[in-house]
Amino acid sequence: MDYIDVNHPSYTADMFRSYAISANVTVELKYTDGTPCDLKLVMQPSDIDVVGDTGANETFSLINANSTIDSIVMNNRNILVESTSGNNITWNPVRGTSGPDQEKNLAGFAVKSKSNSMTFESTSAATSGSLFGVYTEAITPAPVKAVDPEQAPAKAGETITYTGTFTLPRQGIDTIGKIKSMSMVDTFDERLDFQSLTVSFDGQTLTEGTDYTVSVDGQKVTVDIKDHLLTKANGGKKFVITYKTVTNSKVETDGSNIDNELT
């Protein structure tokens, strides 16, 4: 309410910024055909900068942040004051800003959800709207698979080699913030017995234990990359994993195509 537009027995002064409006909002990305959404929601709240004389300031909050938010990225120049209450995080302004650079870097940031939705609360204390850019993070390209030989006799003891090529996402381009982990999983057909694997990165052979770890759970083989390789400078480079397998006796009673799931 910016002013008193009629005579009033009690209110006789300007009421500008006497009240604030808070809105609790859930943003969700969906596919129009109803299929499960595999997109990660990224939002850029900005221009959080209204400081009122009455204490009714503009604020921005992430609801259930600990369980729903993957990462938050801020410029080193950011001046917002952060506070927590339970599982919620709130940012308060300290002064006004002007222009796109200040509004986004001093009074704004980027946040990525763990899923395709995000719940936030915005409190506005001025006669202007709050700014929220909503985006999707690029889907990581599927690994490239190859098999040698492409055809083999349906009998036990045949060696089959699988190769999986994985690309490390580029920080700030394919994903926001630091890459915290990278796991490559190959689930082999029950007619195959896993024997061994080797890993190379950008053409260089890696060392198990130093550069990566391997865990085997039944037919599932997982390779976890060590942190020192998950740097921004390495973004866009490729990991190549070569898996050695051998057919077992089950292939002699089931000679259909052998598929393996690589993620």
UniProtKB/TrEMBL annotation:
TM annotation in the entry: none
A Pfam family of this chain: Sgo0707_N1
Stretches assigned to the Sgo0707-like N2 domain: 141-263
Gene3D superfamilies (UniProt xref): 2.60.40.740
Annotated ranges, domain Sgo0707 N-terminal: 1-136
Domain of life per record: Bacteria
NCBIfam families: RrgB_K2N_iso_D2
Protein name (database record): Isopeptide-forming domain-containing fimbrial protein
Lineage of origin: Bacteria, Bacillati, Actinomycetota, Coriobacteriia, Coriobacteriales
